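Re-run requested by the PI after the first attempt was lost when the workstation crashed. Everything re-entered from the original request form. Ligand of interest: pyridoxal-5'-phosphate.
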Amino acid sequence: MSIESRVKHWIRSDIRAMHAYHVPDPSGYIKLDAMENPYTWPEEMVEEWTTLLRDVSLNRYPDPHASQLKSRLREAMQIPEDQDVILGNGSDELIQMIAFAMRSPSRAIMAPAPSFVMYDMIATFAGMDYEAVPLRQDFTLDMPAMLERIQEYQPAVIFLAYPNNPTGNLFKESEVVEILNAAEGLVVVDEAYHAFAGSSFMHKLGEYENLLVMRTVSKMGLAGLRLGLLAGPHQWLAEFDKVRLPYNINVLTQASADFALKHRQVLDQQTDELVENRGLLMQALKNLHGVEPYPSDANFILFKTHPGKADLIFEGLKERKVLIKNLNKAGGALKDCLRVTVGMKEENLAFMDALRETLGWVEHR
Ligand SMILES: *Cc1c(COP(=O)(O)O)cnc(C)c1O
């Protein structure tokens, strides 16, 4: 028996049919593809952090409950006192924990489409159905369709990215509430981009039996630490905590995130600057002939190119050493769409220069 036939025999066919999540090698590029915060810390802060790390015990298992970090997060994220919180190795791991605790063959995960790709991927890993309900042309929720599909499937969990990725918009608060009232299962409001948006469901926790709020520190400047949180009623979170692998938040992450959040004003200043940069970048894109940006409450901007030009523009930017995200191949509403992360002012200017050049070159082909 060859290794190929063994693999074919033993690995699930739905897994074999999948493509691994592809991350391009960014070396040498201006990296505007992954919604990272581009700023670094002041030198004194780096000094203080590295000094702190000297005392971290790598030979010991981490605090399994990450108690100190949790109380820091409660304060930083304004988690209501009567609500529980559990932590994940990135919010991706929390999505996985939810799916593992709720899965059964007849149960579905639901989300609008387009939305965050991990909802779909993790539903597949867990062997659950995935119900994608298309957004309207302007990326608002199609409420009649959402409510109809909720009635039809009563999904175990509905994920609503708020603001949505990759479209950048916030859904209407009243429509999210309508979904909360219509769903028998859980509704997870995924606030990965909360630092850049003016709206949140955190203060509504407890008002609805089926509302949970998920956040991550990734988009606010700590993507390398892999830390997400899920907040909500104790009754739900106590169950999810059972499928959490012990010690899932390592000692370096616990110490570093606690330290960074203690210096939250540095991170807040950086996110404020990114919001300002987003406004400038949005205006520049609006002024440019040949692209059409969509409104954004996040740290990225989705824009549409002329029909059939997105791949060429993406490649043209790459040749000019600027890496963004090509969503054209996702098809549907994302056909002809590219997504750029808001970077430092000089990075955004370099992106705009490269885009202007590329557009001129594409038009003359
Ligand atoms: C980036 C992102 C996440 C993942 O965050 P991690 O904590 O880095 O795993 C979750 N949800 C949405 C909508 C995102 O865009």
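Saved to the shared folder this time. The longest helix spans residues 264-287.
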